[in-house]
Amino acid sequence: MITEDDIRHVAAMMRLDISDKDDYAEKVKGMLEYFDVLDSADILEEDILVQEINISNLRDDEHVSHSSIQCKSQNKRGHLRVPRLG
Fold first, then answer.
1. Are 32 and 39 contacting, i.e. CB atoms less than 8 angstroms apart?
2. What pLDDT, in 10s, does the model give residues 19-52?
3. What is the model's pLDDT at position 59?
4. 7, 20 in Cβ contact below 8 A?
5. Which three-class secondary structure state does DSSP give residue 5?
6. pLDDT tens digits, residue range 68-77?
7. Distances from the Cα of 38 to the Cαs of 20, 32, 35, 74, in angstroms?
8. Residue 68: predicted pLDDT
9. What pLDDT is recorded for position 5?
10. What is the C-alpha to C-alpha distance for residues 4 and 10, in angstroms, rounded to an integer?
11. Which are the contacts of 29, defined by CB distance < 8 A and separation ≥ 6?
12. Cβ-based neighbours of 4, under 8 Å, separated by 6 or more
């Protein structure tokens, strides 16, 4: 079992600045308990179903030159337009 001292020691080695060490220790203990639950599931292997696709059914790649992409996406001042984030 991992103790709070072990957690503090690892945090110090990783140079983590933990303001509430007791709260952090409780969270780590909770994660480790959850790993124990997963280990007790006793699943050795799982069958994964996949759909096989013939290579002839894949799309053909089309080469688009860099210059044609750049010209279409430039604004009046010559800057590239990009979509907004968020």
1. no
2. 777 777 788 888 888 988 888 887 778 788 888 8
3. 82
4. no
5. helix
6. 555 556 666 7
7. 28, 10, 5, 52
8. 57
9. 81
10. 10
11. 2
12. 21, 22, 25
What is the reported pTM? 0.38
- Check: CB of residue 36 under 8 Å from CB of residue 30: no
The residues with which 80 forms a beta bridge, in sequence order, are 74
pLDDT in the model for residue 67: 64
Cβ-contact 68, 38 below 8 angstroms: no
User: The tokens of 58 are what?
Assistant: 């894949």
Q: Which residue has the tokens 């001042």?
A: 77
Measure the CA dihedral 27/33/38/40, to 10°.
Answer: 180
Domain boundaries along the sequence of the chain? 4-40
